[in-house]
Design a protein that fits this description.
The chain is mainly α. 70% of the residues lie in helices and 8% in strands. The chain has a domain at 41-144. α1 packs antiparallel against α5 and α3 (77-90) runs antiparallel to α4. The two termini are 47 Å apart.
Length: 157
């Protein structure tokens, strides 16, 4: 085989290898996006089951309210904060700690309530986005299948 032919063959092999590597890295990135989206869809579906009662109040979860599961109620953060401070100032008995409420207990519950308000808002947003995420996943999977090596070309009839 002449040198020129060997070089041409080597260049063709290298070009093919680079194309495969390039496709492989882009398909890996696409696969990562698909898997991430699948994870979010799974989380949203789990929330539909585990946060069922809370989801009925999503219109109220704007960051100023949270779902109080023990009483199946939505509580306003500011009202809850005032109530906690009142319990601490009055030294009312706290059955959770089996001693009177104090300010550190009230502050701890206040921080938890603020976190719950943010979580409830995010959970409702995630569940509300479920149909869009499912459509996006279907589109990404279809595009990945079409771009896969050896895939039959789409039939446009």
């Amino acid at each position: 085989m002449p040198r020129h032919a060997a070089r041409t063959s080597l260049c063709a092999i290298m070009s093919t290898a680079l194309l495969v590597l390039n496709f492989s890295s882009s398909s890996r990135a696409q696969l990562a996006v698909i898997n991430d989206l699948r994870g979010k869809i799974f989380d949203a579906k789990m929330l539909q089951e585990t946060f069922l009662k809370g989801l009925t109040h999503c219109s109220e979860f704007d960051g100023t309210n949270f779902y109080f599961e023990q009483r199946d109620r939505v509580l306003n953060l500011q009202d809850y904060h005032r109530a906690l401070n009142s319990l601490a100032q009055g030294g009312i008995f706290n059955p959770e700690t089996k001693k009177p409420w104090d300010q550190p207990d009230a502050d701890k519950h206040w921080a938890q309530a603020q976190e719950l308000a943010a979580i409830d808002k995010a959970n409702c947003a995630l569940v509300a986005s479920l149909p869009d995420m499912q459509k996006q996943l279907a589109q990404l999977q279809q595009a990945a299948a079409a771009a896969a090596p050896g895939a039959a070309p789409a039939n446009n009839k």
